[in-house]
């Protein structure tokens, strides 16, 4: 209780005005603290900065108000003083109090040690960047022109895998979240109606092209524009991979709310708009790509397909080379034994 009472008395006397100055003077009185406590007083902020000990050796201030400072062992731990200072107003700079010619001055020094070097980002000159790029280019050229075929294959394989990872990361930007499916009653058509719609769909010349961009907002928009005057519309998918027509048919049926009547062998899909068709206000759905973004996605997908094929080819080539290397190694090991067996036979014959 005596310690807390003394703390209150000290804080009333000199914490109200100029708390930092009087705190420094308070610390300077060595009779009040044991020597290890003076060495370990630190200022630490709440922003996870590393603590920097202030240089308070230049302090030389005396005042009759500090009569209570002569009492020893009033405060056992120096951490109590941390509560007197608001941590967010502190920084990494060290504070030094100078008393030259009876004038008190504060000097803020720059942070010292590893902290100063880590906070600064070293800027590379243009020449250094060019030299670094040249170094990597020469390193790659050395691997490409290596006499060892394994080194060449492994370098190509590593480069192709890096490109594949980069392309996958790029394609993630073009993934569109599908909107929740709206509840609607699909119309049930009889066999006669389906046969009639097939014949009319084949005879009519109106069609929508699904090209290399795939299904995007413009395809669905064109289908709705055709359904304004026609009951059916043909969707021609070219170029199209094997089995991709079924994916296009499901996607277009979900986006346009149309009914798939037939899928032809020449990658043509016939869609029926329905009896109670009403043209929507927004004919291009929100969960589709634009024309330009669909083209960019197609380019990345095409590059990814070629890269994956190239990786498979390199892996097979590397596997064959390692098998060939193992066969040659076994043949070299068996050669001295055969030679020694031949010498043994010759000696017995003689």
From TrEMBL:
Pfam families: CRS1_YhbY (PF01985). Residues 187-284 form the CRM domain. SUPFAM superfamilies: YhbY-like. InterPro entries: At3g25440-like, RNA-binding_CRM, YhbY-like_sf. Keywords: Coiled coil, RNA-binding. It comes from the Eukaryota. This is CRM domain-containing protein.
